[in-house]
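thread: overnight batch results

M.L. [08:02]
morning all. the overnight job finished for the chain we discussed friday. pasting input first so we're all looking at the same thing
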Amino acid sequence: MNRLVFAAGGWSALRDDLLAHSPIETAAALIVAGGRFDGGMRLVVRDVILPGPDDYMTRSSVEATLTPAFLASVLKRARRDRVGVILAHSHPMQEELAFSRVDDASQKILAPVQHFRCPSGPHGFLVAGPTGFRGRLFDAEGETLFTIDRIQEVDRDLRTYERESGIRNQAPLSDVFDRNVRAFGLEGQRILNGLTVAIVGVGGTGSVVVEELARLGVGRFLLIDPEEVEPTNLNRLLGATPGDVGQPKVLIARAAVQRAQGEMDVEAIADTVIDEPVARALLDSDFVMCCTDSHGSRAVLNQMAYQYRLPMIDVGVRIDARDEMVTAMSTRVQMLAEPLACLNCHPLLNPVSVRRDLLTDVRSDPYFVGHFEPQPAVISLNAATSSMAVSMFLSAVTGFPGSARHLVGRPIDGSVRPVSSVPDPNCIVCSRGNALAKGDSWPMIWRRHEG
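M.L. [08:03]
and the structure it wrote out:
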């Protein structure tokens, strides 16, 4: 599924601008960074440029043609930033929205120019009407590569717009979801049914998240974890039995989803998100639950959340013990999305641990010495923290009550409190001048395998 992703209110404002002059067509240019994954692309809108009255050559109820000077200025900017341009316009009077023959002809004319001026791309067309939108990307010959299936706005909440406004899957809902509907409404349930959610790390906290999201009715799952079940996992890994020792954890999680919902669309990847091909698979999701316990994988996910405008919730549990006695406990549930502060802003990532995790072979680096002890883990603390994360997710996608997007718990004191934090304006990850909304035009820290 190819998604066009705006910042808060971006699509709503653009749609209103495009339709404001009905029945006259109106145009706009979107500066867009791509995020490629196998079979599609995530399109991150960096800016929207609205033409003035003098930027039109012709404008009527059937056509809106922009001047060469306006297009040249837009393409110059896109070339400088190594990104692409999606040209948008309205069909304000079209009941059955579709690209016109004029649009098809214009695509053939403009495609070679856009790809020559801005070879990085991506390039495409978008049309908005009273009933929804249509979008597509094209190659240098003007042939359509992909359609745009979904438009989203990402900030503290995730708002999703389908190609036909207000129309989701209208099939009758199962009685299984009756109590959900009573809590967050029929529309909220249909939103969940249409989402793809990725869970990275399906161990102690992730297995709880998988179980709860499956029973809530999330429509599609992507499960990522490189580890196999060990005997020491059985105290906290939901769904695992002694007979599962040696099996990939993602297969145990996939079985849990299918027990809850029957035959489901579940993709399971038994590999690390630190590697580029695995991480790129996340770009074909609507939301990510980060339940990994390594600093390297958290660093990759943290940067992806802002660079590709991919909303995430990070789940953390820590127990400190000495001589088999607990000395401290803490929990954290934090949403990662513009304009919220990232993990680097607090800071919560250990640079030495990140570097160690990203190395292909730690033994080759003389600066890493000693060994790493496994940490204490208790299922009750994992479950409580994971449930807070799922409730935060529900609030972000369905409007379920709950305004906090960063919660810190002190289990010994019995307290959970919201945290209000301001992003560092110079942060390398979440500030406008750095990785934020840059897509593939900005380097990622994931591990590449050459050759």
